[in-house]
């Protein structure tokens, strides 16, 4: 059994990303940039989660909705939070 932590970010785009978004192929460019940013971020987030709740992450996924300036980060855990906290 696994738990999932969901983080919702609103209004996360930088002014430069808003400008790039308006260019042809801009959304794909922003997605590629953010994908590269998340590569090293994953190990830091894994350490943070393990330190806070004592469970390692199994996988970290994200979903962008650039038109609504919203991003979701899904942290899939290797266990159940209630087991680790109690």
Provide an overview of this structure:
With 86 residues, the protein is of the alpha+beta class. It has one domain (4-85). 47% of the residues lie in helices and 28% in strands. The chain has helices spanning 15-21, 26-53, 81-85, and strands at 4-10, 57-65, 70-77. The model has no long low-confidence stretch (mean pLDDT 86).
Number of helices: 3
Structural class determined from secondary elements: alpha+beta
- The radius of gyration over CA amounts to 15 Å
Separation of termini? 16 Å
Largest sheet: 3 strands, antiparallel
In short:
The chain is of the alpha+beta class and 86 residues long. It contains three helices and three strands; from the N terminus they run βααββα. It has a three-stranded antiparallel beta sheet, with helices on one face.
What's the layout of helices and strands?
Blueprint: E1 4-10, H1 15-21, H2 26-53, E2 57-65, E3 70-77, H3 81-85
Antiparallel strand pairs: 1-3, 2-3
Helix pairs in contact: 1-2
Which key features would you list for this structure?
86 residues; alpha+beta; three-stranded antiparallel β-sheet; 3 strands; elongated
């Amino acid at each position: 059994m696994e738990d999932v932590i969901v983080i919702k970010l609103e209004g996360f785009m930088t002014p430069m990303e808003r400008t790039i978004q308006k260019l042809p192929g801009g959304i794909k460019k922003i997605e590629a940039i953010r994908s590269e940013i998340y590569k090293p971020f994953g190990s830091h987030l894994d350490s943070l989660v393990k330190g806070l709740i004592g469970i390692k992450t199994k996988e970290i996924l994200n979903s962008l909705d650039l038109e609504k300036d919203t991003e979701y980060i899904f942290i899939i855990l290797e266990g159940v939070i209630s087991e680790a906290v109690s």
